[in-house]
Amino acid sequence: MEAEVDKLELMFQKADSDLDYIQYRLEYEIKATHPDSAGKKNPVTLLKELTALKSRYQTLYARFKPVIDEQKETKSRICATLNKTMTVIKELQKHTDLELSPMTEEEKTVTEQLKPHMPDL
Q1: CA 20 to 30 Å from 99, out of 13, 37, 45, 118?
Q2: CA 22, 27, 28: angle at the middle one, nearest 5?
Q3: How confident is the model at residue 23, as a pLDDT?
Q4: How far apart are CA 22 and CA 16, in angstroms?
């Protein structure tokens, strides 16, 4: 989940950077050429639209940032709880001299998926 969140955050940052570059190129092109051609959209209007678009991206990112932070916090809490649970189970096994039955395929799959996030498994 964290990888997807980081990827989305990077996409927003790249989009913001791309918009800055587009704005820079448009300003350069307007200065380099004479925008006197009829029937075409006014370059100043295009720049204003680009600025508005950039503002919308920044607003969207600002709305998205708390979700990113909350997802990271939730993941951290889940991992901590799972680690504590695993520790309690191991302690119970030691004190009762009992062993759990072998893991099912589903349990093995879940364990493998969790290992990158929880190295203690």
Answers
A1: 118
A2: 95
A3: 82
A4: 10
Q: pTM score, two decimals?
A: 0.48
State the average pLDDT for the chain.
80
Distance CA 50, CA 30 (A): 14
CB count in 10 Å sphere of residue 104: 9
The C-alpha atoms of residue 25 and residue 36 are separated, in whole angstroms, by 18
Q: Give 7 or 40, the one with higher predicted confidence.
A: 7
Give the residue among 91, 82, 94 at the shortest CA–CA distance from 120: 82
pLDDT at 70: 92
Task: Tell me what the mean pLDDT of segment 73-98 comes to.
Answer: 84
Whole-angstrom distance between the N-terminal and C-terminal Cα of the chain?
18
Render the chain in DSSP notation, one character per residue. Answer: -HHHHHHHHHHHHHHHHHHHHHHHHHHHHHHHS----TTSPPHHHHHHHHHHHHHHHHHHHHHHHHHHHHHHHHHHHHHHHHHHHHHHHHHHHHHHT--PPPPPHHHHHHHHHHTTT-TT-
Instruction: Calculate the alpha carbon distances from 120 to 4, 9, 26 in Å.
Output: 23, 28, 53
